[in-house]
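Hi again,

Forgot to attach this to my earlier email, sorry! This is the prediction with alpha-L-arabinofuranose bound. I've pasted everything inline since the attachment limit keeps bouncing my files.
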Amino acid sequence: LSLNASQSPAKKISQRMFGLAFEEINHSGAGGLWAELVSNRGFEAGGPNTPSNISPWTIIGNEASILVSTDRSSCFDKNKVALQMEVLCDVDGENICPAGGVGVYNPGYWGMNIEKGKRYRVVFYVRSLQPVEMSISFIGSKDQKLATSDIKDDNVAEWKKVEMVLEAYGSDANSRLQLTTSKRSTIWLDQVSALPLDTHNGHGFRQDLFDILAALKPGFIRFPGGSYVEGDRLMNAFRWRETIGAWEERPGRFNDVWQYWTDDGLGYFEYLQLAEDLGASPIWVVNIGISINEQVDTSLIMPFVQDTLDAIEFARGDASSTMGSARAAMGHLEPFDLQYVAAGNQDCWKKNYRGSYMKFYNAIKGVYPDIKIITNCDASAAVLDHPADLYDYHVYTNANSMFSMAHNFDHASRNGPKAFVSEYAVTGGEAGRGNLLKALAEAGFLIGLERNSDVVEMASSAPLFVNVNNQRFNPDAIVFDSSKVYGTPTYWMQHLFKASNGATLLDSTLQSPSSLTASAISWTDADSGRSYIRVKVVNFGGNRLNLRLAIEGLDNKSIESAGSTLTTLTSTNVKDENSFNEPKKVAPVINALKNASNKMTVIIPPYSFISIDLQ
Ligand code: AHR
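Structure tokens for the complex follow:
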């Protein structure tokens, strides 16, 4: 491999080249990054009518001691459903309540992770015509109490908000929140929430899941999908306006594509906040009146367009603007840095796409000329028939084809809009649950994107997250349950690309078998001020190879051997995966690079991804 370290002019890779595609899929948000422990907190999972679906709420007691139903008596206009508990037993008399009382419990998303010493804010709304006596507790999987608090209130004839902080004196990753009473009464409950106090910046993001994203130093974050943006049906598509403001007033939605209920705690505001907290550019994917199975006629699209303009004003308007003031009221006075709007997801082939796209394009550009608009139509092979700043490109394929797609953009037009490869993944049985083979093929593809960074602006793998208890799409980059998380090889592979954001692409020529691909970059670390050259090589074959590296324009005296490293991502078997037990079985291993020089030979293991970093 020969490369030129002093080329001119410099080829700058986009500052946002590698980032994240976050979708509400696999319980990525609800039961994942959004740290809310209670699932179906408003009892609305069955929709606005009663009887509603209260799952996973579970009744404690039997028909002789408690009757539980739903009605539409809530104090929240957008969430009228409330839970009614008619308690038939009492502390004394003929029908004595069982030990511990009767009531309901919520197991969260396959168990709540309650940790000793940690504090949890529990909020709920209650109403009763009798004085209320209740215990609110976190209970572990062996029925042990982990935290508890009692309330007594004889003034709850009108709905009343109850708020408490519970400190856990025990740990259990499979706990539940329980609300019980031993007093004969009729009690209504609504909007029950339990959030750990130690979420990221207090913004509601589960800290370990936030950290694993932040470690990738993502240049952007695309949200909230994916197909989730479309919905199977328009009525279930993500509607940003229903996801802002007080959480108690968010109606929630049935995610009909991935088949689960979400309370919309992670709403449009929180996505923008997440992007800001990650230091990543937010890329909002907006539904343009097209779902997977339904389309709004373009002649009727203008209310959707206005709704999108309102959303942009919510993000970018100053606090005195109509929508900007709604954002400010949520605690973010300064505008969010929204610069990208993607119009739809995988909708180019739909009848109404172009007509509706143009309405959105013209309206957004008219008010916000600087916003970059991303079309769903592929411009890599044909010239677009409509204006766009970027085009969305998705690829799901087998490992061989993904690796060979390193050359996909070699012949793409250099004149039209740049590509946003917002979803790529190796899928199919050979990829297992996310193995080394998958990661290597994807690394080869990314090397191709990097080499074509004059026509590729951004790239992200998909899906990003999976709650191991509800895998709707396999494989994924990051796996978690209520208390643990690990990255698949695909996740770790992306670590070797994070220095590429904003780096300079170096010209390099590789003479090798076709199972090898390589790229080279240089960059200066902003914190240390040190400069690096990174050569990345993927060996997608089963042979061990000797790579002879020759770097022009780099004096040996300027290489700091002590600071130079060789990072290797490989394993004994190309089908190896990580797991909760072995979270780093396939992860980058960093070694000192002895004898670093401008002419050297490096051994490349079979089926490996290596990064040679010269300081
Ligand atoms: O990433 C999973 C799904 O694959 C996305 O929702 C969709 O855009 C694609 O088909």
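The pocket of alpha-L-arabinofuranose is lined by residues 23, 25, 225-227, 345-346, 423, 462-463, 473 (CB under 6 Å). The chain is about 15% helix and 30% strand.

That should be everything now.

G.
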